Amino acid sequence: MAVFERLAHLCSATESSLSSNLFLSPPFHSFTIFLLELSSSPIPPLLSPSPSFTPIEKTFNFDIPVNDPEKDAFSIYYGDQQVIIGGFVLFFPNYSTFLGKPGFYVEDLFVRECYRRKGFGKMLLSAVAKQAVKMGYGRVEWVVLDWNVNAITFYEQMGAKVLPEWRICRLTGDALQAYQNANV
Amino acid sequence: MAVFERLAHLCSATESSLSSNLFLSPPFHSFTIFLLELSSSPIPPLLSPSPSFTPIEKTFNFDIPVNDPEKDAFSIYYGDQQVIIGGFVLFFPNYSTFLGKPGFYVEDLFVRECYRRKGFGKMLLSAVAKQAVKMGYGRVEWVVLDWNVNAITFYEQMGAKVLPEWRICRLTGDALQAYQNANV
After folding, report:
1. CA-to-CA distance for B91 and B72, rounded, in angstroms?
2. Is residue A110 a part of any domain in this protein?
3. What would the pLDDT profile of B140-171 be if each residue is shown by its tens digit?
4. A102 touching B, CB under 8 A?
5. Which residue of the set A77, A115, A155, A179 is catalytic?
6. Are B142 and B107 contacting, i.e. CB atoms less than 8 angstroms apart?
């Protein structure tokens, strides 16, 4: 995704930085990931299902087989059954004082290239929206680059509005570190 | 704040909606508020201090007394001592897969009108930045309306950058509720 957004020079995540901050808390109350798991036969039920979420299952029929050159690198095994990770959505709660309600903020929505244009992105984002409704939350929000016309069209088709007036402010790097010893 | 942003028609928070979602978890790991408490004499220490945060104290000298017509409505009492709430900042953790690190997202920064232009806004936002550095977080982010030139200047003076290309996407109201029974 960083490459697509022309922002790879800003991407400094590592396996250890990811694992030290993710997968530490129950779903929905902090950083949460829905994984897109793909298999040509039904995926067996989880051995330790989460009490707060039932995996969503859906059958897709493809006209032609998908050629996934990185299939093995993105596979996990449920017993003997190979399951391919096709994408993910990472989201977490946010809060609106206007609504007086929490919502979800979607940080990343990603489908691996060979699985695009098949409805998986819509499935992942819809799953977040459905969970937000289930929890009584008031909004689902995310950001998009203003030149990414395809993404904007896709989001608008899903019912989202692009807000023209708001801009993101970011304090990071040395400018943030300067506050370490600030006499606040 | 809703009035200033010309968005009062979108503001539907109530006392009960606020209290049912805020003040429920320890600071910093979910929705967190720093309150600006003002008093003409030193504020006594908390009876139950938080192990994760020491209140920041600062002495300000005003040239002329502040006329606060809503003083009593915004007061709390520490024993006999009247303490005025002058503003607040509401923030919560976010997560960047680019950095592989959490950050803080600032939802609201508000100083009551009669206490503005005295450095309190800077104090509140700096306190969030300082806490982010303390926790090893990578960013502090918030949003601003593109016509709010005074706010943008203030934020830039604090070291923040305004990102020109990103736009917020929002799924809310009926468009969100439509996902309740969606066949995801």
Report:
1. 26
2. yes
3. 999 999 999 999 999 999 999 999 999 999 99
4. yes
5. A155
6. yes
CB contacts, 8 Å: B184 with chain A: 56, 58, 123, 126-127, 130
Q: Does residue B152 lie within any of the structural domains?
A: yes
Annotated catalytic, A155? yes
Q: Which of B95, B167, B178 faces A163 most closely, judged by CB atoms?
A: B167
Question: pTM (2 decimals)?
Answer: 0.91
Q: How long a stretch of residues is chain B?
A: 184
d(CA B28, CA B128): 10
Range of the domain at B28: 11-42+54-178
ipTM of the complex: 0.91
Amino acid at A174: D
Within-domain flag for A121:
yes
Q: Do B127 and B88 touch, CB atoms closer than 8 A?
A: no
Please state, in angstroms and rounded to a whole number, the distance separating the CA atoms of residues A131 and A153.
23
Tokens found for residue A67: 């050629």
CATH number for the domain that contains residue B166: 3.40.630.30
